[in-house]
Inverse folding.
């Protein structure tokens, strides 16, 4: 069944290319960020845009995350990484380019704090407080746990998010924003998870001016 599904997918992509409709194969053939952005803008509905990527609705329950600069490429690389995709709390990547210029992922509904509580059983505010304490304690600071910590700490969602913080050095600030999450089915997932501390330092942090060694 899986092989048949893959064959149908390939046939569909070829048909799209021949008919002049949007195709990932055609997108891969474009060699500049600007050309890829123009092409996607002609064929797909734009949903959102950040400093590194543009998100388009593919119309089939998935979204295309298109890198518009090296920042976006780095974020796509993180999200499509195989080990990252083993986590249940991320919107799954279904396809990606070899150069990380684009990826296709599950489309999620907007998450609200009300939806978060209905699904996870505790408030987003409590989640943030527990996440902050974890973040601070991982840096050696003696920040007390919230009173609800024991309950939240047993939740698989919270456990996986803190695991991601530890394994990928994800910044607390992004993980504490409701807009970083979405809802797929009846599950809260990360929809924007490509900004690790490494990616930030390499592509976002202000570059320090070189010292000339004059002693002042």
């Amino acid at each position: 069944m899986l092989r048949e599904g893959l064959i149908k997918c390939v046939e569909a992509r070829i048909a799209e290319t021949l008919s002049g409709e949007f195709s990932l194969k055609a997108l891969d053939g474009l060699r500049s960020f600007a050309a890829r952005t123009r092409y996607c803008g002609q064929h797909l509905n734009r949903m959102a845009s950040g400093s590194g990527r543009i998100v388009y609705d593919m119309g089939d329950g998935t979204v295309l995350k298109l890198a518009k600069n090296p920042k976006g490429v780095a974020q796509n690389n993180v999200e499509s990484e195989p080990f990252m995709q083993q986590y249940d709390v991320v919107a799954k990547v279904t396809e990606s380019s070899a150069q990380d210029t684009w990826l296709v992922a599950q489309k999620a509904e907007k998450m609200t704090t009300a939806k978060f509580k209905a699904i996870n059983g505790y408030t987003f505010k409590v989640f943030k407080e527990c996440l902050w304490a974890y973040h601070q304690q991982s840096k050696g600071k003696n920040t007390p746990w919230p009173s609800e910590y024991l309950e939240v700490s047993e939740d698989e969602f919270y456990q996986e998010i803190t695991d991601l913080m530890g394994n990928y050095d994800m910044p607390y600030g992004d993980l504490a924003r409701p807009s970083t999450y979405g809802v797929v089915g009846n599950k809260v997932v990360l929809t924007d998870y490509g900004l690790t501390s490494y990616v930030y330092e390499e592509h976002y942090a202000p570059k320090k001016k070189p010292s000339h060694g004059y002693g002042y």
